[in-house]
Design brief:
It is built from seven helices and 22 strands. The protein is mostly beta strands. The chain has two domains: 232 residues, Alpha-Beta Complex (Sulfite Oxidase, Chain A, domain 2); 129 residues, Immunoglobulin-like (Sandwich), CATH 2.60.40. The radius of gyration is 21 Å and the shape is globular. The mean pLDDT is 97. The site of ligand MTE has 19 residues, from strand 3 and strand 8.
Length: 384
């Protein structure tokens, strides 16, 4: 069993697939803390977790004129300044189950918790690329940076993807080669000893157990870059789909979801007020500026309170424009609508480019169930 050496996981996680391991926390737990503890952070593995010896580990950097660069973990920690970035990471399949409920899609049946917010610590990818010889000459032809994991399938193919060089080399891109998550060594499930963190970009590009970086004029030729993690029209079915016709997903669209109350919860009329909680985040460093909440199926709306820290804590200062990588948590406490026996609670977020979420799923439905960012709706019953 190639999965025999996979690490232990927290029993509260909802397991979508055991081998490879894919799981998410219950939504109520997800928004209990601004920084997601690693045990509750969703886990999305395509393959067995590779066991990497940190002492003999080397990161290969290839494609630059200086030849191949080989860096130990010690080199990465001592030869470059350490940076920390608080960033959310979301799987392209987050909220797929709601899309699947409308019309069947192919993929793991994620709820709303295939997202987390962590404080990542490591070396800037930019610093490593510059040390490896990136300069104006290279900038003339280089367009992409490939990342290859140390996790391999039975044919020996490693998980791999790429991002545009502009994101990788930009000082404002904040792309990290992270060796820490929330102040500790990366846990095995999250890429020990090193992973890429590409803030504002889909989870799939944040390669774990990073083994190799290649500078290239072309995108990664891997399955996950060329054939998966792409969006299609609702009218495209498996007989018609042409992966070459769509670009690889990079920056993600505006997103929000309700985490409390859970769908199907029963609320006592004697409560008088109702508290609704959730998260909101947008890709590309765009900052969430507002979350609207409706308790009556979208007829009337109230503005939720946003925070970028834990409850009762002084919040982190606002990020520089274009670098809002972390999520925001939000909350609304309002009187229970009188008479209603059932409430349809809805949330929708707005980012600083005034991007909004679509109201329904059908117009954004796609055969892989990716990029579901429609208004999130939960129904609760009110008991007299
Ligand atoms: N990196 C490697 N090497 N192997 C993987 O299977 N999964 C990707 C990405 N990086 C993956 C990977 C996907 S699709 C996502 S959503 C994120 O890792 C999930 O990161 P997490 O497990 O730390 O939450
Ligand atoms: Mo993912």
């Amino acid at each position: 069993d190639p999965y025999a050496s996979d690490p232990e996981r927290h029993p509260v996680l909802r397991v979508n697939c055991k081998k490879p391991f894919n799981a998410e926390p219950p939504s109520e737990i997800l928004t209990e803390s601004y920084i997601t503890p690693h045990v509750f952070f969703f886990k999305r593995n395509h393959l067995p977790v590779p066991q990497v010896d940190p002492a003999s580990y080397r990161l290969q950097v290839e494609g630059l004129p200086g030849g191949e660069l080989s860096l130990s973990l010690e080199d990465l920690k001592t030869q470059f300044p350490k940076h920390t970035v608080t960033a959310a990471m979301q799987c392209a399949g987050n909220r797929r189950s709601d899309m699947n409920n409308i019309k069947e899609v192919q993929g793991l049946n994620w709820g709303v918790s295939a997202i987390g917010n962590a404080k990542w610590g490591g070396t800037r990818l930019r610093d490593v690329l510059l040390a490896a010889g990136f300069g104006p000459e290279v900038a003339n032809w280089a367009r992409h940076v490939h990342f290859e994991g140390l996790d391999k399938d039975v044919t020996g193919t490693a998980y791999g993807t790429s991002i545009p060089i502009s994101k990788a080399i930009s000082e404002e891109g904040d792309v990290l080669l992270a060796y820490e998550m929330n102040g500790e060594d990366l846990p095995p499930d999250h890429g020990f000893p090193l992973r890429v963190v590409v803030p504002g970009v889909v989870g799939a590009r944040n390669v774990k157990w990073l083994g190799r970086i290649v500078i290239s004029a072309e995108e990664s030729a891997s399955h996950w870059q060329q054939h998966d993690y792409k969006g299609f029209s609702p009218g495209t079915d498996w007989s018609k789909v042409d992966p070459k016709s769509a670009p690889a997903i990079q920056e993600l669209p505006i997103q929000s979801a309700i985490t409390v109350p859970a769908d199907g919860a029963v609320i006592d009329r004697s409560e008088e007020t109702l508290t609704v909680k959730g998260y909101a985040w947008s890709g590309g460093g765009r900052e969430v500026v507002r979350v609207d909440v409706s308790l009556d199926g979208g007829n009337t709306w109230q503005v939720a309170q946003l925070r970028n820290g834990d409850e009762g804590e002084t919040t982190e200062p606002s990020p520089p424009p274009g670098r809002a990588w972390a999520w925001k948590l939000w909350e609304l406490t309002a009187p229970l609508p009188p008479q209603a026996e059932e409430l349809e609670i809805i949330c929708k977020a707005v980012d600083n480019s005034y991007n909004v979420q679509p109201d329904t799923i059908l117009p954004i439905w796609n055969l892989r169930g990716l990029l579901n960012n429609a208004w999130h709706r939960v129904k609760v019953r009110v008991r007299e």
